[in-house]
Specification:
- The protein is mainly beta.
- Helices cover 11% and strands 35% of the residues.
- The chain is globular.
Length: 1089
Amino acid sequence: MSNKSIILCFSLLLLACNQKELLFKNPTSQETGLKFKNTITPTNELNILDYLYYYNGGGVALGDINNDGLLDIFLSANQEKNKLFINKGNLQFEDITTKASVSGNSSWNTGAVMGDVNGDGLLDIYVCAVVGVHGFYGYNELYINNGDETFTESAEKYKLDFDSYSSSAAFLDFDLDGDLDIYLLNHAIHTQESFGKANLRYKRNEQTGDRLLRNDRGTFTDISESAGIFGGINGYGLGISVADFNQDGFPDIYVGNDFHEDDYYYINNGDGTFSDQLKDYFGHTTRFSMGNDVADINHDGLPDIISLDMLPEDELVLKTSEGDDNIQIQKLRTQKFGYHYQFTRNMLYINQQNSSYLETALLSGIAATDWSWSSLFADFNQDGEQDLFISNGISKRPNDLDFIKFVSNEQIQKKIDNTKLVDQKALQMMPSGEAHNYIFKGTKNLEFEDKSGDWISNKKGVSGATALGDLDNDGDLDLVVSTINEDVSLYINQTNEKANYLQLKFTYPAPNTFGIGTKVYAYEQGKLQFKELYTVRGFQSSSEPMVHFGYGAIQQVDSITIVWPNKTYQTLKNIAVNQRMTISPENTKPFNYKSFFKKETPLFKKSSNNLGIHFTHVEDNYTDFNRQKLIPYQTSDRGPAIAVGDLNNDGKEDIYFGGSKFNPSKVFLQTDSIYREKNIQTIANDSITEDVVALIADLNNDQKNDVIVGTGGADFYNKMTPLLDTYYTQSSVGFEKQELPAYFENAAVIKAADYDNDGDLDVFVGNNTVSNNFGAMPNSYILKNENGKFSILENQSFQNTGMITDAIWEDYNTDGFVDLILVGEWMTPKFFKNTKGNFTEEKFIDATLTGLWQQIAAFDIDKDGDVDYLLGNWGKNSKFNASEEYPLRMYYADFDGNGSTETILCNYKNEAYYPLLGLDELASQIVSLRKKFTSYKSFAGKSIDEIFEKSVLKKARILEVHTLASGYLKNENNTFTFIPFKNELQVSPISAFLEYDFNADGDNEVLVAGNYFGVSPYQGRFDSFPGALIFNEDKIVLGNKIGLDFNQKAVKKLNIIKVQNKSYVLATINNDHAQVYELTHLKDDYKKL
């Protein structure tokens, strides 16, 4: 053999070794006979400039149309004819479109769904169309299955021949009368009328408004208005999912709307009507909502939701694509126009049953998948966890910033409006949006692992509608993906015998013959898997009417409870895996949802009259980002101050609430059974200050409590008087203002302790930031008390230690002197040993435990007798990325040499650090970047080392964060190990801990609260943490399960107050009403939690 032949053979062998065996293979149309291509050809007369949904694509519907046990495929097209392929076995398909008479009569088809409309046991096909715009003609078509591989178009007969702007449709039995009704999903197009206030949704538009169509014995009646379904000209419906979200037996509906209109969360009232409860259950949603899907991903028997958007992962695409609104536009949308909070990324909503959803997409690792159309949950590798497939891509990106800049030019706009002369140039400026599809492996902790390139090919293209089913009858789930200008894609799953499965099909009494709406609760080894049969999922598609479970190596399922649509159930036990079962109702019994989903007895109960504490904190309208545009978050919204103590010497606890800028503080005095507001003029006079933190204590040893108020707000700067903290002593005639040392800082925490053991209380004042100079280290002080007068304890090691947020006095070395432990942002927790009044830092903590720490509390969480420390951090559910190896970085410098500092945050990605913000945001503060980068494309993909000169970066101070997780320092013989809390506690910053024996069982627990809204729309809102109660390191219960209402509220502080010897929890909330909770003390109920 020649050397050349040897080299060639070796190269081929090496190539074969390097090729991955993917979980899915993609047989070609030549191999399968599945020859279908949705070819779209733009012209001067019709393209994406004319019709914004030009590249949304067609639909996919899977079902066994001839009942031969093989899954058939229907594909709808835009400019082509529809096609129907029957499955001949062995992945061979035959085109029977002509025979079946289903090619279609409309010029622009969209979604395609299958369902048994007439109850004869055969799957019919409903095809949506866009009609009445740009010359599109036709109507939605209903193909009734004749049972012989032919169909009769019957839309007019069934009153389903709508000529509107339809995206898709969903089958459901919303009124539980036994037949299938239809929700018709329509979309708007941009007109002057489609932009306006949210109440546009109440005025019905026949072309764009969604419809609820009730099946009345063979014909469908539009009951949309009477049923409470919106139908406005601003409804851009692209995604729909049906599920019993609140588990009351009635199907509910989630609708995803593109652009400015809110999504709809229709809860079925059980009387033929629906109520949109989006704002009650979702703190925020996707902005450009695309497809969505539903599955129980955390094994609690409740359906969770994913909604797709178009946030890119790739830096080149990310920095050339339009993103979120700026903060002023967001305020206009939400406060003036009435829309909800919307952000440009995928959202994953974790169902909390009758409470707000946890939103975890960033934490879960699935927030950024580019121009995403269809999402489908399924257990693709059959390990018992739900995986996720997402289809991607668009032929042209209309959100490209260089394109938007071009068409926004006034002269170009006139030419576009009046002629077609610039259309081709505009189209050429839109870059291709081809992208690879994503697939994620589900895990047990709300996180997903990206398996794109391992399970599926990373080939780029334009994929849209997607449906799943078992095409080859091997037990695992396959995918059919509609593409644009390419052959339809098959993803054939090769899990096969590597893991076990169970498939369930249902035979249900006519007319709902396939049992749409059936629920299955499957148990094995104490683990629940829950499925609900609705075929319309993802985007413009319907999947096989079958329920699939993966079981890994498990050979037998312990039990399966099947709940039929009529609210009856039956249970099967000891079911062998690796089979497809067909199940019919047999020996059924009534199913009681209330007893099945047992509600925990609340440990907390809202006080009916709030104990008279009618305090509402009103944040002033100062916005930090207007002054320092590049800061990562605000520091002006850390109030209100709250302190509890006796202010009138009657032995009862009173309350001081600080006010925001120009709003006076308020005092509530406790009477016999209630609080009443009392004006203390001396304190109220200082209304110009922003009161952030307060302390009530006897500071001059006269047996009367005094008050210290820490001010801040980040608005006042330099040596402005409102930055001075205030001190009021109480005398027999009231409160008198006293002098404090003149330091001008933004306070974060005030804690009192007798650090020098001289018999009076000294005060630590921890400060968080320097106004107009975010990133600079403020001064923090101990105020030494000498007979009620204070002086600064000079030259202490903690003075410039960081951006302090919280502190505790704790004699951690038991030497008789209280020591000081500090936490803050961009720093590690720090321990300062008190040696007879002099403080030195002790290095107990690894240097890589830098965080954005918000709170600290001493608590023996592992019940081993020593003190551990709970730490509230930023949480893992943000666009900040931090790890021990690749920390989040903040560069702090005067980047443009104008005498003012800027901060630039960077995440690590692809072996470099990239700014989180784009060119527009950076150049709004550093104007010189506009000259260096004249287009968005020239800026995109540049790391910070490429954006700025080395000489500039060399002068920058780099602050780092290595962990964003909240957790606790586990104390083992004075060696501390950081243990993160479970992911449910990582969705938002944690801002409050409160230790108390809440259930009166003799052991203390810790109540936890958080959420924070002081970030730009780029970050979204941290609003879905419901609070939690920590019993010990193994038992943590979320607040919504025990009576708390902390969702969508930024809780600042938690306090125990006592009235008539009864304990209550007082929750003080930024920019909201204070809440008071009674304690039910039901300790027996909570031992089992």
